[in-house]
Write a structure and sequence with these properties.
This protein has 251 residues and is an alpha+beta fold. The protein has 8 helices and 8 strands, in the order αααβααααβββββββα. A 4-stranded antiparallel beta sheet has the order 1-3-4-5. A 4-stranded mixed beta sheet has the order 2-8-7-6.
Length: 251
């Protein structure tokens, strides 16, 4: 099952739906409420992404990892990435998967926009036939509206995930540092640090011809394969450093 449909994410979605419905019942049905809910959804998504674990399921403080003795460093690997003739093929499957997932998310967004106009009729129907209290009627109307969004978006994601199968996500930092305590690289917003030793399920792969080392984690339950690809001018040296300090010795 897709990681977007995990039990934890679905339960959190229900909690937020109730909270948003309470807030909307207090604020009313104006476009200001629509904008506030959109902003809150984006903000909560950002907070959840910041609090989530790293791409390999573990995360550390960048300062603590960077403070250790450096073993290998690359300040810019764009040139190596551009010379990798197999890179385009690697991204074909990922691009198709992301397109399917984006279309699924778009279906939920279209519902959110199109059905906003039906909130008033729904509110008046609930107030006339179910509960006469104004705030309670607002709450139930927004609850039904947001639950509809939840159903549409969840069903769309489920169908997309069934169609695309296992999703492969490749993360390729343009610069990084490997120390005795882990790997640090720059993301879009902030630095990410992966501590050593690596989780047992993470596989370290070397491709000297294409000049990179990959850290691969397969999550069969979530149907996601996550790859952290580190391009290097001396990939064997990088591979040896990661193997020595990042892989647990077998007992």
């Amino acid at each position: 099952m897709s990681y977007l449909l995990s039990r934890r994410r679905l339960l959190l979605s229900q909690v937020f739906i109730v909270l948003y419905s309470v807030l909307a019942a207090i604020l009313g049905r104006g476009w200001e409420t629509f904008v506030i809910i959109i902003v809150l959804v984006v903000a909560m998504s950002y907070i959840q992404s910041r609090r989530s674990q790293g791409p390999l399921g573990v995360k550390a403080s960048p300062e603590s990892v960077e403070g250790a003795r450096a073993l290998y460093r690359e300040d810019s690997v764009r040139e190596l990435q551009l010379k990798d003739e197999g890179l385009a093929k690697d991204f074909e499957a990922q691009s198709r998967a992301l397109m399917s997932m984006n279309l699924a998310l778009m279906a939920g967004l279209l519902y959110f926009i199109i059905f906003w106009r039906f909130l008033d009729p729904l509110y008046f129907f609930i107030k006339d036939n179910i509960v006469s209290n104004d705030v309670a009627a607002h709450f139930l109307a927004f609850l039904a509206y947001l639950e509809g969004y939840f159903i549409v978006s969840t069903a769309s994601i489920y169908l997309a995930s069934r169609r695309m199968g296992t999703m492969t996500m490749i993360n390729m930092p343009s610069s990084y540092t490997v120390t005795e305590k882990g790997i640090v690289y720059k993301g879009l917003i902030s630095k990410t640090a992966i501590p050593f030793p690596l989780p047992d399920e993470v596989e370290v792969r070397l491709d000297e011809k294409r000049k990179f080392v990959e850290l691969v984690k397969k999550d069969q339950k979530a149907r996601v394969t996550t790859i952290l690809r580190l391009y290097a001018r001396n990939p064997r040296r990088l591979y040896q450093a990661i193997r020595r300090y990042g892989v647990k010795e077998e007992s």
